[in-house]
Amino acid sequence: MMDRFAAVLLTGLICLVALGQFFQVITRYVFQIPVMGLEETMLYPTIWLYIFGAINASRENTHIRANVLEIFLTSERAHTILAIVGEIISLIVGLWILGWAWDYTKYAWRVWRESPTLYIPTFYSDVALLVGVTLMMLYTAWHLIRHLLTLKYGTVA
Fold it and tell me: Rounded distance, CA 20 to CA 5, Å?
């Protein structure tokens, strides 16, 4: 169910951003009539697309990694231990960033900025960082638990 929701959400956001850019190109370069504020409105789905893409990579555990140590490790147990260390470091750094995201969200709520042309509250894009980092940390914790269970019991379904 979560896979389907993520696929539909990301596809919808990609289509929205692509259509907005297509519309902008057609009106600006073909008809020579730029649509004022279109870039401003495209900012919101673009930011959420980026954040949900990162969340999806955390959910699938498919972030790009440079695990050079895996080359030298021969046992599956050593790979699992390396994964556990990586998840713990990710949690520490991520929770630190989550604190910053929380502070930034409180600031965005207090200041309540608006976009320059259409006066759309920027809070709706600013809060994406807090939502994204929170969900990424939950998925990281989930993967850490799975790695710990794998280390303890062997293969985890």
Answer: 22
Q: Give the mean pLDDT of 16-24.
A: 94
Q: What is the 3-state secondary structure (H, E, C) of the chain?
A: CHHHHHHHHHHHHHHHHHHHHHHHHHHHHHCCCCCCCHHHHHHHHHHHHHHHHHHHHHHHCCCCCCCCHHHHCCCHHHHHHHHHHHHHHHHHHHHHHHHHHHHHHHHHHHHCCECCCCCCECHHHHHHHHHHHHHHHHHHHHHHHHHHHHHHHCCCC
Kindly report the pTM of this predicted structure. Answer: 0.90
| CA–CA separation, 136 and 60 (whole Å) | 11
Give the pLDDT confidence of 62-88 residue by residue, as tens digits.
888 887 888 888 899 999 999 999 999
Residues in Cβ contact with 130 at an 8 Å cutoff, skipping those fewer than 6 apart: 98, 101, 102, 104, 105
Domain assignments of the chain as residue spans, ordered by start: 2-153
- R_g over Cα of the chain: 20
Give the model's confidence band at 157: pLDDT under 50 very low, under 70 low, under 90 confident, else very high. Answer: low
Please return the burial class of 99, using the count of CB atoms within 10 Å of its CB with bins 0-12, 13-18 and 19+: exposed
